[in-house]
Structures are given as C-alpha cells and as structure tokens.
Write a structure and sequence with these properties.
352 residues, six-stranded mixed β-sheet, two-stranded antiparallel sheet, 9 helices, 16 strands, globular
Length: 352
C-alpha cells in the first residue's frame, strides 16, 4: 500500500465538513436593509477589506459598508482546520491566459471567494517581505511605505506566540525575535505543534550549501531557509484569518459596520475624478443595485479583480477602454498589466 505525502515547510492538513452559513446582526439582508449611503464603501471583504473596515468602524460615528462576492461562513472545518489550498467551494475558478515565457502554459490563479478572502483558504504562512522590498517603494516615490514605516502596523496586526517547548524549537532550528512581533493584535501567529522529521533533512541540505537560517524572517531579513510562523490560533490549532480577526466578535456587533455578502461590484461611479459610489449585482438573483459613499470608495478586491473593476469603471489604458466601449475617466496604462504571482515548488514523496 502506498500513499502520497505532500510536504511543505509549513505543515497543513485538511478536513472537509458541511458549511454553516452565518447570520449576523450587521449582515445586510431580510433583517437589515441596505442604506442608501455610507461614509465609506469597501469593495471586497477579504484580507485587507475587513481589516480596513474594522479600523474605520472603531469610530462609532463612521459608517462603513463592505461588499463581498463570497458568503459569510461559520464553523466549516474546510476553513478552520489547516488545509492544503483545495477549499474549492470558497475559491474562484480562474485560469490564466497562456504565458509566452512559460511555453504558453496556463495556470490556476488562486483567489478566495468567501468572506475573509485569501486568508480563509491559503496555506497560512504568516510572513513578511525583507526590508529592501518595502524601502524600494519609497525610492519609487511613495514616502511612508518603507520598512520602518510599516513595521509598527505589522506588529499591531498580530499576537505572536512562540513555541512553548524549547527542545522542539531547537530540534527544528526555529528562530524568532519577539521585538519584531506584536502581542495585542487580532491575527494569531504561532507554530504548529508537529512537523515532519524529514524537514530537518531539508535544513541540513541548505545549510551544507551555505544558506543560513535568519534570526527571524519577520525582522526585515526574510532571506535564507526558515520555517516561518502560521496564522494559527495556538489555543485550538485553528486558522486565524480576516473574518475571525476583523469581523467576528466585537466588530460584528457594531451598528455602523455593515456587510453585504453574495454580491459583486460591477462599477465604481465617478463625478469627474471623484468616486461617489458603486453599482453591484447579486449572485443569486442577478439583480443590480447601487449605493453612494459620502467620503471614499476603498477598492480591496484583490490582485485579479481590483484592476478589472477599475477598467469597467473607466480607469485604465484609454485605448483599451475605448475599444470596449467604455468611456475613460482616467487614462492609466498600468491598470490590468504586469501581474506577477509568486513561484511555488511542491516536493512530493511516495512512501511504500
């Protein structure tokens, strides 16, 4: 008898159960009508969308509407139990166009179609880039987006729990710097309590080649071979993600925080070059509607859908938009171009 063991540097397993669709006091539906206007409209209830909505609604005088294509799901093991990126019910079915640089192969483009977005279906690797990655943004003309600027917010977002058993961390060469992590944030970050012993062979091999393990991949030096923390709640070993961190609990009880799930935004409305609201379509009924924003429309629909919505709204390459019969609001050539996804290498073993 043989079985296929998929080994990642961060351990993940899957358990699939029936979904329990949630009901909330601030979930727009039969019991809570949609208002005609809000201070802020957030397009996309995923990783960043729910985070921004949570922060904004800490002010009880600020009203926020989040519009999300996916549904709010509670208690589904396919989300809560660490998975292997195959929660197909909660993922868009997107395939790339043929890639000329890769012999015209096509690839799946993973994107979460659920409240919580990618954080509800990803591999739970809770990492950061290296300091030079962010400092390069400043050099490109974006002051305030360097490593030292962002580190306080990285720390604000998490509650970090290091391994509690020193022999375990020593055995697997786990290193961390608590000064680089937060202790009062909404997202839980920790390490699984088990790792496949063969992982040690990977580390020995890389070390033999001169590739070192950094003191902490979250302190600005994310280069080398390391086992980073996961977005894992150490209390019960379940996924910690955008919904559990920035919607469940206290945020879901705020009367100024509304969520419209099961709807996709089709267009952002403009008055001149000022965004004034959005139009949306129901997944179930296909009926369309609209809502206005008195302050801002915040686009947080992810790397695939944010540029799509912008183009449909008239923001993008002017020539392309005119060819599609869309009146340009802003001729912005970069919208919808230069998308790059991270390379991933899977190592498989057949054990007999």
């Amino acid at each position: 008898m043989s079985f296929l063991l998929l080994l990642w540097l961060s351990l993940t397993i899957q358990s699939v159960c029936g979904a329990a669709f949630a009901s909330r006091a601030n979930l727009v539906g039969p019991d809570l009508p949609l208002k005609s206007s809000y201070d802020f409209i957030v397009v996309g209830g995923g990783t960043s969308g729910l985070t921004v909505a949570d922060r904004l609604t800490e002010n009880p005088n600020t009203s926020v509407l989040v519009i999300e294509y996916g549904y709010l799901v509670d208690g589904d093991d396919a989300v809560l139990v660490p998975g292997l990126l195959n929660n197909k019910r909660y993922v868009y079915n997107i395939t790339s166009v043929p890639q000329r640089g890769l012999e015209n192969h096509t690839f799946t483009v993973p994107a979460g179609a659920v409240v919580g977005g990618g954080t509800a279906v990803n591999g739970m690797f809770f990492d950061r880039g290296s300091a030079p990655d962010y400092d390069a943004w400043v050099k490109l003309g974006n002051p305030g987006w360097g490593w030292k600027d962002l580190l306080p917010y990285f720390k604000k977002s998490e509650t970090f729990t290091p391994p509690t058993v020193k022999t375990f961390s020593d055995e697997y060469d786990l290193k961390w710097d608590e000064a680089a992590h937060g202790s009062k944030g909404e997202v839980q970050s920790s390490y699984p309590v088990y790792q496949y012993p063969v992982t040690k062979n990977f580390f020995r091999a890389w070390h033999s080649l001169g590739v070192e393990t950094p003191d902490d991949p979250g302190n600005g030096n994310a280069t080398g071979v390391f086992w980073g923390p996961s977005s894992l709640d150490p209390k019960d070993e379940t996924r910690s993600y955008s919904q559990s961190a920035h919607f469940d609990g206290a945020p879901s009880k705020r009367p100024n925080y509304h969520l419209l799930s099961g709807h996709s935004v089709s267009k952002i409305g403009f008055r001149g070059k000022i965004a004034t609201g959005v139009k949306f379509i129901s997944r179930e009924t296909k009926k369309s509607g609209g809502v206005t924003a008195t302050k801002e429309v915040i686009l947080a629909a992810g790397a695939a859908f944010s540029p799509q919505i912008l183009q449909l709204s008239g923001v993008g390459p002017g020539k392309l938009l005119k060819g599609l019969g869309i009146k340009p609001v802003v001729d912005l050539p970069g919208v919808g171009h230069n998308f790059q996804d991270q390379p991933t290498l899977y190592t498989a073993y057949e054990c007999k």
